[in-house]
User: Which sequence fits this backbone?
């Protein structure tokens, strides 16, 4: 996918947000559940990758670029580059990509998601395939 991107608003990753996602998601791996002793030694839990994708999806919705979206059909080629910890800021660079039309007149369109931290370094990338009422033009 080429072209310019739309950048979403950002979200601050807090320890409370990580704990809420870990607890609500039922994560049991010790990486996401430091013991009280480990926490006292400064060990903190990273945000699970699925949490990164969850937050990215919300940020993408806030961007307004997908106001004519009907449904997320597929996430593919998801790659995580680094762990996300409390104190980070995340935003998504969203690039519209190829479109194919359905017989019913709707569009299936790919979007490149690049989740970046406050310094602009990529922490995750994915291709989202969306069912659209109207496609978004590549910018």
Assistant:
């Amino acid at each position: 996918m080429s072209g310019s991107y739309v950048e979403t608003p950002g979200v601050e990753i807090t320890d409370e947000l990580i704990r809420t996602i870990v607890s609500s998601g039922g994560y049991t791996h010790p990486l996401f559940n430091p013991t009280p002793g480990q926490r006292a030694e400064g060990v903190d839990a990273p945000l699970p990758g699925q949490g990164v994708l969850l937050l990215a999806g919300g940020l993408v919705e806030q961007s307004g670029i997908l106001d004519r979206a009907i449904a997320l059909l597929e996430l593919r080629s998801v790659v995580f580059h680094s762990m996300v910890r409390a104190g980070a800021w995340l935003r998504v660079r969203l690039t519209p990509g190829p479109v194919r039309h359905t017989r019913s007149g709707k569009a299936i369109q790919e979007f490149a998601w690049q989740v970046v931290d406050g310094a602009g370094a990529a922490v995750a990338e994915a291709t989202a395939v969306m069912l659209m009422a109207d496609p978004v033009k590549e910018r």
Summary: Helices lie at 15-25, 36-40, 49-63. The beta strands are 6-7, 11-12, 69-80, 89-101, 107-116, 122-132. The mean pLDDT is 94. The CA atoms of residues 5 and 69 lie 17 Å apart.
